[in-house]
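Researcher: Final request for today, and then I'll write up notes for the group meeting. The sequence and the SMILES for NAP follow.
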Amino acid sequence: MSDAAIDRVWPDPASDLDDAALLKGIAFPAGRTWLRMNFVASLDGAATRAGRSGGLGDAADRRLFDLLRWEADVILLGAGTARIEGYGGMRLSDEAVAWRTDAGLVPQPAFALVSRSLDLDPGAPIFTDAPVRPIVYTVSSAPAHRRAELADVADVVDAGDEDADGMRIRQDLAGRGLYRIHSEGGPHLFGAMLAVGAVDALHLTLAPSLEVGSAGRIARGVEAPVGAKLASVLRAGDELLLHYRLD
Ligand SMILES: NC(=O)c1ccc[n+]([C@@H]2O[C@H](COP(=O)([O-])OP(=O)(O)OC[C@H]3O[C@@H](n4cnc5c(N)ncnc54)[C@H](OP(=O)(O)O)[C@@H]3O)[C@@H](O)[C@H]2O)c1
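Model: Predicted protein-NAP complex:
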């Protein structure tokens, strides 16, 4: 068994799932727009270690993180996460591309960012190495000069006045035929999306650590409690990989 071996605890217990079984378990529902989020958190709720999410997850979290991208039409990200986590051009592996092609999908998912300030470098790999022209969702009050610069490398779309509205983002993506929306965060984007009921599901890795300290949680912003129903529980050693549907 590899470090990244993943068992299914519930429903239908099974050991050492292969990629095909994992992909089946995380498939998007057919025939509808669906927006899901993927996060990792420590047992005491920290969303970061030393300022980044990477230190919290292990090989199994990374494996699921990658597989969650495979079926997506679009990967959605808040600008803060893109800046801090140092995202490059969104490009899936050859194996993922082959799987997508077999499944009748376009080779690479689109990449969409959400930013109020448009403080994004048009010369950054996130734009220059992108296999598909990215989309940047912003607000009507965003600086005009930055909007003009980014328009050379991305579709810049208004989704609100002061805050980008998650429902407008969903609708715009669906209007482009991008129904399977997979988001890798971060916390402020998640909070804003939850506040308007724009999120259908959460894939949460519960990392077996107590971080203590003052790291933030996976959802930030205006208080907006949202209930969740357990859809599945995977386990990799001491780590749980949880899937919830949101109310
Ligand atoms: N544990 C995990 O799984 C996980 C996942 C992702 C990120 N993280 C961590 O989270 C931290 C970043 O947190 P964050 O909350 O700043 O990330 P974020 O939500 O990705 O980024 C926040 C930024 O996104 C834009 N944004 C978000 N919602 C918006 C809205 N409704 N309208 C307009 N713009 C919006 C704004 O960009 P502008 O500033 O450009 O205006 C805002 O400052 C990093 O330390 C990262 O490592 C952890």
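Model: Residues 59-70 form the longest helix (12 residues). The chain has one domain: 32-41+57-246.
Researcher: Thanks, that's everything.
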